[in-house]
Amino acid sequence: MRTRIGKMEADRTGFAQEVARLGAQAGDPITDEAPEQASVRLAERLEQAARAREARAHLLLDVQKLQDVQAVLSAEMAVYETTKQQVLDAFGVKTLPEVAERDEQLRERDSLLSAVAELEERLTGDLALEDFAQARSLLESVDLDGLAIEKAEIERRLTDLDEALQQQVVRRTRATDKLDAIGGDSQVARIDAERRTVLLEIEEKAARYIELKLGVMSASSALRVYRERHRSGMMSQASDAFILITRGQYTGLTTQPVKGGEVLIATQRDGQSKVADALSKGARFQLYLALRLAGYYEFAKLRPSVPFIADDIMETFDHLRSEEVFRLFGEMASVGQVIYLTHHQHLCDIAKSVIPNVSIHELG
After folding, report:
1. Are 264 and 275 in contact (CB under 8 A)?
2. Scanning 77, 121, 259, 311, which has the fewest C-beta atoms within 10 Å of its C-beta?
3. What is the CA radius of gyration of the chain?
4. DSSP letters of 6-50?
5. Is residue 25 part of a domain?
6. Which range marks the domain in which residue 310 is found?
7. For the chain, how many structural domains are there in total?
8. Which of 338, 320, 318 is nearest to 330 (CA)?
9. In 3D, which of 267, 265, 247 has the Cα closest to residue 255?
10. pTM (2 decimals)?
């Protein structure tokens, strides 16, 4: 027993000496601390060093990736500089703003040349000649002073003819009035008055109809332009949201033209397609929610965002789809305020698990 005790004490002394040696080697000399505690601390430092070594290796990999990206960007920059120099040499300038100015001048020159060619064609056609050279030769031999005198004479004659025409119109009107006044009683005059009234009403209603028709056409055109301008981005965002909410059961959204408009079609995972009205109740709710989310993002691009309020729209959603919806709501919170009203406690628990910084208010 004494031998065993001696060996154990020797082992303890050796352990303490080894721990002290390792502490001194690590720059952490052992004072009055127990060897066991010092051993635990040195083991923790060893584990931290291993993690630091691993982190350093990852950082070196990241640095290498960034250097590769930098090399690619440098190559692209070199190509850009070469192209830029070629453009500058082609335009004979030193800066890109001067290139833009030269390009604008060239466009203006082309426009002027086109206008000149059009005027030459019109002039040749009006003079009934074969080419502009003949028209120019003819115009160069024209006496401008004589043409001015002839023009003044023609304008005077046109004025005289216009006055004569007005007088003839007045005479015809008076003769028509006298002719209309002929009759044995007031029946003719009354019918004529009614006819004039009906004609005025027709004219007024026709003008109103044309005005309304033009307004409807303008509104339809504006709506079509707006829809075409915003549909691609909004449809893509709605499609992504619908795929996420349905957890891949549907793979996208598209539209198909029909008589009088378009219909919305959902594509299933197996490749089959369904129109929106043929979807199940839950799938329709998820589709309309995806469209609302995309519309909210589109609205927030053009004007200050307003709160997005939803009232228990996930009653038909299962647990997994509810998680995806709350994840989308969490992303929307970076654009504007999202308010969800519910009386289901399990939805509050899902929201807490998906969105750590969610605020839950219990209304009494």
Report:
1. yes
2. 259
3. 44
4. HHHHHHHHHHHHHHHHHHHHTT----SS-HHHHHHHHHHHHHHHH
5. yes
6. 304-364
7. 2
8. 338
9. 265
10. 0.37
